[in-house]
Structure formats: structure tokens, C-alpha cells
Amino acid sequence: xGVGLSILIGFKSLTLFLTFAYLRTxxxxxxxxxxxxxxxxxxxxxxxxHPSINLPMLLGxxxxxxxxxxxxxxxxxxxxFVRFFSAVRRLKSREDPYxxxxxxxxxxxxxxxxxKMPPGKPAVxxxxxxxxxxxxxxxxxxxxxxxxxxxxxxxxxxxxxVRWACRKxxxxxxxxxxxxxxxxxxxxxxxxxxxxxxVVDDWKNAEKLIKEKRPYIRMNSLHRKALEEWSKxxxxxxxxxxxxxx
Length: 246
Description:
Layout: H1 5-25, H2 29-48, H3 69-74, H4 76-92, E1 98-102, E2 105-108, E3 123-126, E4 142-144, H5 155-170, E5 175-178, H6 185-196, H7 203-213, H8 221-233
């Protein structure tokens, strides 16, 4: 989704609306109503995910990774679409569901089932706002940093995730940072985490290291801008003597 979520979902909204209008002209009024509703939901998501607005809490994802009933009903055309799209894309992809960057630090895609989780019952940093936590997948803690696809957590969100993950690592608990596919949002957070752990000196070298382990990552300008701001304003200095690079 390199062109941006808001553009793609905006195009989807237009397509659904044209389908609604076409069915209306054929006299299928009742059949056309779901298309109109799905079009309006897609338009709302397109606006809320635009970088100038960036409102991931629109979908109502709870801190425990669940979605309230009202959200599942109101945003069902979008929420179930992204789950379906994710499942299809994974079936076509040969990429591993997760990759170990350094000892005990994993980055990857949405763990929709137990077999897509790294070993060792890791603590989970969830960078999605559109995908639910799968509760049958156990772990040693869970933190949600809700972020739209193709967008980045803000520097404050990155810092919160890094501090939380560092505490888990200090307890010898592995950490798994994920977004939908393990290409953008989760990579940005993992870059910062590697700097905080003292594995690398800066996020640019962290990106290179992650790419060695997970070749299909692709951070965009929003991810890099957030990391630059995080690097300049971060509250905690990088650890020393804790290089865990394999």
C-alpha cells in the first residue's frame, strides 16, 4: 500500500458508490443500500487515515486489543475487509510470518493464529488499529500502539513502545513487534528498539539490519520522519554494553 491508505480506501469508496448508483438505476434499491453504507464507511476511514488528520482511535480498538461491539457493527465493511485482504495476501506470500532480528527481538505480521507467533511466549507490541488481538495466542504482556496502515506511530508512541519493550527485555522476555505484514509500522518501532537496546547507533543502521533479516520491509517517508523526530527528542539514552546482535 505504498500510495497511502487514504488514497486506496478513497478509491474503494468511490467504486462502492458507483456500484450503488448503478444498482439504483437498475431498480435494485434494496440491494444497493449495503453498497452505499460501505462507501460511506470507506470515505470516513479515508479521511481519518489522512496524515493531516490521523485519527486511528476512530475504529475504537481497546487497549487489550479487542474491538467493542459498536465498532464491529459500524465499521464492519472495513474491519472484515482488511482481515480478508490480509488472509489472501498471506496465502500468496512466501514471506515468513515473523523474523528474528537479534536474540529475543522479533518483527512480523499480524499473528492471526498460534503458529504465527514466535517461540518463547513473547511480549507483544501491536502497531495496528484495524486488526484484533487473538486472545488464544498467549504471551508475556501486550501493548497496543494503534496506527493506520502506511502511517507511523508518533514519536511519543514510539518512545512508549520502546520503554515498555526494554522493560520486558530486561526481564529476559522476548519481544514481538508486529503490524499487518511486518513491513512498515512495526519496523519503525523495532528500529527505535534496536537503538535503545544498544544494538546499533541509529535508526538508519537498524533499518539496514532488519532488512538483512526481513528483505521485504519498506518504510516510507512518514516512518522515517517519525524516527528522526524520536531520535532528536527521545527521553532515554541508548543502553551501553548490551549489543545483542547475532
